[in-house]
From TrEMBL:
Pfam families: DUF7057
Record's keyword annotation contains Transmembrane helix: yes
Matching InterPro entries: DUF7057
Organism of origin: Providencia stuartii
The protein's name in its UniProt record: DUF4153 domain-containing protein
Keyword Oxidoreductase appears in the UniProt entry: no
Keyword entries, A-Z: Membrane, Transmembrane, Transmembrane helix
Length: 554
């Protein structure tokens, strides 16, 4: 792993030119005004940004010789994949405000992470007969070089900002403005990242294989111990009738992913087999078999949620990952049962087919073959018919997020008067909304608050007392706060976990109540605040002149 790659000097020129182009496109693609004035539809608005991020970066990872036909084929494949995935995820975006590149961006990162080493191997060996050991080396190397290249790009930006600051001190304003320009900063990062990446590929040999393997052995044993303790606890809970606190499918998926990563870091492709100690090896083999329990439990947990509610896009992604991991773990288990300690010789073959299957799966779920939005919509509509799904405003939001088909289904549901009422009813409406008069406590010895104050049109202050999202205590009283002979209304509110409370003072002029002051009182602890609050409730307070005068512009 980590061998130097022969890279021609012309490759540096190509990478530098694409890095500058990358910085320009990223700058203008992330500018809201430019996006609005570009006239591009929501489907195409983020396509230039995604192409600018991934294509030049892929060139920096792949280029060795600018005359290589395989290199150009690989770049063409990446361009086509970027266009396809970008358009697929933006296919329902009618305007630039509806579009979001997040899912497409994440999908492309995952897809290219798994795809790039295959392309690099194809360029290196000029054959489709892939050496799994080299393939694993490229996965590790690409990750490390990406981190180092990002650090180089970030360091270059830091130096540019430092130079900008220093030049500003000595009145080199024109040079300082040039360096502080967004285009300069983006160009600094992209040049640092891409040139740094290709330089690291050609210069350094990263011999981390054995070091990483040693660390992975330790953590793999820890994970296996956790697995066995968990299974013992699960069996104990089952037979004693104790309820588990939850299924935790997400945690189990991460647990399986960590196990698979560490297994591969420890054993590699199996050509240079490592064996744990004679007393420890059976424990490791048993733990590998035990991983099937976790994969089945994660799938079961997801299906339980689906049965309770319906499929959602998140559950479909989770189920796809769980099913893929279950197949890999099952293949490992078959190898362990058939070959015992020699099972690691099968790792390379299993993982190669697994990686190809993973790449294929990513492509399938980003195509009409497995349209997660369509599957989710059909499942939701079925759940409504079966009474599994509650019809409320949250359902309306979920359907609206599923694109034109979901919006059409929502429109159809609203044609039913009963459904229409429920869809417009807030989920939080199950708890009856209280009025301010229900929750505001009148302080002792205070006159009743005037009806005209309760009835005033501006109700913004009521939020603090009747919000369903935050818990506030509220009190009110009448007092002549400015000593003009006329009582004013004071309303105070305090959050339960805050060491302070705030008060608002209204004064009546010409039959209209207006806010004349806002006051904040801060204390060292909630307990001190509660004592002061109780004194207000008991009507125990004084009116003191403020220390600081009001500043009024003339």
């Amino acid at each position: 792993m980590g061998q130097q790659e022969p890279i021609s000097r012309y490759a540096y020129i190509v990478v530098a030119l694409f890095a500058i182009l990358q910085s320009v496109i990223i700058l203008y693609s992330t500018d809201y005004t430019v996006r609005q004035e570009s006239g591009l539809s929501g489907q195409f608005i983020y396509l230039p940004l995604l192409l600018a991020v991934f294509v030049p970066s892929a060139i920096s990872y792949l280029i060795t010789n600018a005359k290589s036909a395989i290199f150009y084929l690989n770049i063409l494949i990446i361009i086509l994949l970027t266009i396809w995935i970008s358009l697929w995820h933006a296919r329902h975006s009618e305007s630039s405000t509806d579009a979001s590149p997040f899912i497409a961006f994440t999908t492309l990162i995952v897809l290219l992470f798994f795809l790039l080493p295959w392309m690099q191997m194809r360029q290196l060996e000029k054959t489709w007969k892939i050496d799994y050991a080299c393939l694993m080396g490229f996965y590790i190397k690409n990750t490390l070089l990406g981190i180092f290249a990002s650090a180089i790009g970030g360091l270059l930006v830091t130096l540019i900002l430092l130079a900008n600051f220093l030049f500003k001190i000595v009145n080199l304003s024109s040079l300082s403005q040039l360096l502080s320009n967004d285009l300069t900063l983006w160009a600094g990062f992209t040049l640092g990242f891409n040139i740094g990446l290709i330089f690291l590929r050609s210069t350094f040999e990263l011999q981390f294989g054995k070091f990483i393997s040693y660390i992975a052995r330790f953590f793999l044993i820890i994970l296996h111990i956790i697995a066995i303790v968990f299974v013992i606890g699960f069996i104990f809970s089952y037979f004693t009738g104790m309820n588990a606190t939850g299924l935790g499918s997400a945690a189990m998926l991460w647990f399986l992913i960590l196990n698979i990563i560490l297994i591969n870091l420890v054993y590699g492709d199996g050509t240079q087999p490592y064996q744990f100690s004679a007393w420890l090896n059976p424990f490791v083999l048993f733990s590998v078999l035990l991983l099937n329990f976790f994969s089945l439990l994660s799938i079961y947990g997801i299906l339980i949620r689906v049965n309770q509610y319906s499929w959602s896009i998140e559950r479909l992604y989770a189920f796809t990952i769980a099913l893929f991991l279950a197949i890999i773990i099952f293949a490992y288990s078959i190898a362990v049962l058939r070959k015992r300690t020699h099972w690691i010789f099968s790792l390379g073959t299993i993982n190669k087919f697994g990686l190809l299957g993973l790449i294929g799966t990513i492509l399938v779920i980003n195509s009409p073959i497995a349209d997660f939005k369509r599957i989710t919509l059909n499942s939701i509509l079925s759940g409504i018919d079966n009474g599994k799904i509650k019809v409320d405003s949250m359902l309306a939001y979920d359907l609206d997020e599923l694109g034109p088909n979901g919006q059409q289904a929502l429109k159809k549901l609203k044609s039913n008067p009963e459904y229409k009422k429920l869809l417009e009813h807030s989920s939080y409406g199950d708890e009856p909304k209280k009025s301010l008069e229900d929750v505001l406590v009148l302080a002792k010895n205070s006159a009743e608050l005037p009806k005209s104050w309760w009835d005033m049109e501006d109700k913004e202050h009521e939020y603090y007392c009747i919000s369903l999202y935050h818990s506030y205590n509220c009190l009110g009283f009448m007092v002549d706060a400015n000593q003009d002979g006329q009582d004013d209304v004071v309303m105070c509110y305090a959050s339960e976990d805050s060491g302070s409370f705030d008060c608002i003072i209204w004064q009546e002029k010409h039959d209209t109540w207006s806010i004349v002051d806002r006051q904040a009182n801060h204390y060292q602890s909630v307990e001190e605040r509660d004592q002061a609050w109780q004194k207000l409730l008991d009507g125990q307070f004084n009116l003191k002149p403020k220390e600081w005068r009001q500043i009024i512009p003339q």
